[in-house]
């Protein structure tokens, strides 16, 4: 019987070890809709969890010496399960409030302390207690302690792989967290049952745990009303995906949000105004955000292009516009969020056509492995707020993209930042990096070069010697207002002192630090 109890003890540290990693990974996903999926969120969660574990191990040692009883051990598991469920319910109130109160650099750390410290602390106290319970004597103490750490660490490995490869792809964050808390509490009930003789007490305890799980789950899932206009909401593989209908510029508009960021938008009345999908000026009629309209820059340099590659699909606004430009156009899209392709077809009028190929993989990886060359490459991948994936902002990436362009092919990239003299500057460093690869390049401020606010900056790199004559009829008399007024938006490189700014490379890429300066000013 004792051997069975010891096996159950080892199984318990396996389960609780799994729970620690589930909480750690899910914590990052819980924070990202409010602070973005940044290094600050990741570092804060890891730091707080490690701090909780270190304090928990110390406290667990004290508890083990004073109260070396299995009832105490399972009571802590039970309470930790309750705190996990409370954590989920509390996050519905704390995160929206803290998300507006604190910046993306401070908020993740403060929120992590409030939400994740206590559950991780309680779970950490269990290992020292388990060692004490498993080692009735000092004989083979090292071997027995090693077994406890082995099963606890194996559980953490299980929690990490289970969360990434199974739980997140198939279940919502709310369900995962509530289920983790419920499993811990019910596992503790099993432990109590094993060591108790009062059947009535066991039944009441199990019933109480079930009621707590159900009530807290109901509060978590249904206690916060959904905003008006939501037509779709689901946890994606990387970010929370929300589709919401609203108004933009007095027109009915559908928006795609990934975490807290606008990812795409489409005028819902555009098809009624123009069955062809084009406006009278030749623009794609359902493009909402001005920066997306700059995709048409290719028409000045490589108007005969028939192949395009888009890094980042979102609502597939630009790929859809490219398909509308010419029946000969073929577009490849690399979008790491696998569900967005079907979402774009269902909610954003993306046509089902063999002229568009969807690849659910990283854009840089795709370029590295493909033998294709393109007339147009569009870079518009963001993972939160103004944060571009680091590996898509370096000198090596731009060199790779250039190597995949046809002669006179163009790279058109969307970046966000300020055009002022403040140092350090993400945009200044990024322009310097881009120019080191694309000697023939242009840069355009979507609002205006002298705008004091953060704005979209369009990078145009040309794999060839063709230039833009802003006074030529092709530009000055173009029916497309974006192209016609292009000269007014060109950024004068002489106004930027590039000597103060470093190029961004795979080796030196403080992108998130530089972007955090933008967000702190923007907030």
From TrEMBL:
Catalytic residues in the record: 380
Domain PABS: 311-463
Signal peptide (UniProt feature, chain positions): none
Sample GO molecular function, one term: thermospermine synthase activity
Keyword Zinc annotated: no
Keyword Membrane annotated: yes
Pfam family, one: Spermine_synth
Residues that span the membrane, as ranges: 7-28, 40-59, 71-90, 110-136, 148-170, 176-195, 202-220
Keyword annotations from UniProtKB, A to Z: Membrane, Polyamine biosynthesis, Transferase, Transmembrane, Transmembrane helix
GO biological process: polyamine biosynthetic process
Cross-referenced SUPFAM superfamilies: S-adenosyl-L-methionine-dependent methyltransferases (SSF53335)
InterPro entries: PABS, SAM-dependent_MTases_sf
Family under the similarity heading: Belongs to the spermidine/spermine synthase family.
Protein name, entry field: PABS domain-containing protein
Organism expressing this protein natively: Candidatus Staskawiczbacteria bacterium RIFCSPHIGHO2_01_FULL_41_41
């Amino acid at each position: 019987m004792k051997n069975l109890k010891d096996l159950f003890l080892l199984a318990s540290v396996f389960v609780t070890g799994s729970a620690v990693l589930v909480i750690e990974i899910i914590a990052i996903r819980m924070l990202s809709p409010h602070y973005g999926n940044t290094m600050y969120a990741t570092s804060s969660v890891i730091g707080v969890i490690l701090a909780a574990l270190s304090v928990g191990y110390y406290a667990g040692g004290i508890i083990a010496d004073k109260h070396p009883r299995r009832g105490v051990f399972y009571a802590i598991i039970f309470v930790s399960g309750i705190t996990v469920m409370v954590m989920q319910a509390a996050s519905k109130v704390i995160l929206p409030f803290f998300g507006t109160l604190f910046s993306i650099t401070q908020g993740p750390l403060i929120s992590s302390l409030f939400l994740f410290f206590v559950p991780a602390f309680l779970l950490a106290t269990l290992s020292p207690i388990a060692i004490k319970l498993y080692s009735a004597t000092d004989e083979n103490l090292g071997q027995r302690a090693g077994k406890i750490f082995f099963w606890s660490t194996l559980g953490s490995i299980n929690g990490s792989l289970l969360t990434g490869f199974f739980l997140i792809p198939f279940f919502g964050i709310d369900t995962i967290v509530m289920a983790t808390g419920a499993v811990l509490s019910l596992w503790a009930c099993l432990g109590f049952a094993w060591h108790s003789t009062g059947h009535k007490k066991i039944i009441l305890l199990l019933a109480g745990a079930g009621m707590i799980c159900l009530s807290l789950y109901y509060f978590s899932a249904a206690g916060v009303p959904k905003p008006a206009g939501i037509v779709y909401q689901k946890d994606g593989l990387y970010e929370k995906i929300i589709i919401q209908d609203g108004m933009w510029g007095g027109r009915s508009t559908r928006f795609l949000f990934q975490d807290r960021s606008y990812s795409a938008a489409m005028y819902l009345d555009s098809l009624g105004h123009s069955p062809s999908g084009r406006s009278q000026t030749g623009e794609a009629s359902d493009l909402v955000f001005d920066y997306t309209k700059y995709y048409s820059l290719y028409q000045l340099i490589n108007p005969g292009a028939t192949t395009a590659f888009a890094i980042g699909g979102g609502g597939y606004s630009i790929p859809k516009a490219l398909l509308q430009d010419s029946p000969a156009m073929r577009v490849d899209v690399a979008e790491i969020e696998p569900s967005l392709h079907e979402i774009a077809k269902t909610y954003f009028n993306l046509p089902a056509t063999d002229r568009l190929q969807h690849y659910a993989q990283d854009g840089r990886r795709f370029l590295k492995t493909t033998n294709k060359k393109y007339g147009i490459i569009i870079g518009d991948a963001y993972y939160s707020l103004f944060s571009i994936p680091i590996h898509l902002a370096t000198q090596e990436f731009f060199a790779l993209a250039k190597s995949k362009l046809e002669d006179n092919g163009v790279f058109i990239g969307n970046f966000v930042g300020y055009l002022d003299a403040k140092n350090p500057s993400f945009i200044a460093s990024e322009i310097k990096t881009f120019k080191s690869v694309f000697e023939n390049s242009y840069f355009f401020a979507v609002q205006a070069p002298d705008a004091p606010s953060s704005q979209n900056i369009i990078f145009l790199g040309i794999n060839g010697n063709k230039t833009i004559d802003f006074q030529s009829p092709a530009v000055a008399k173009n029916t497309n207002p974006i192209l016609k007024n292009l000269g007014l938006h060109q950024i004068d490189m002489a106004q930027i002192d590039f000597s103060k700014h470093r190029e961004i490379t795979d080796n030196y890429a403080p992108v998130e630090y530089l972007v955090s300066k933008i967000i702190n000013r923007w907030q």
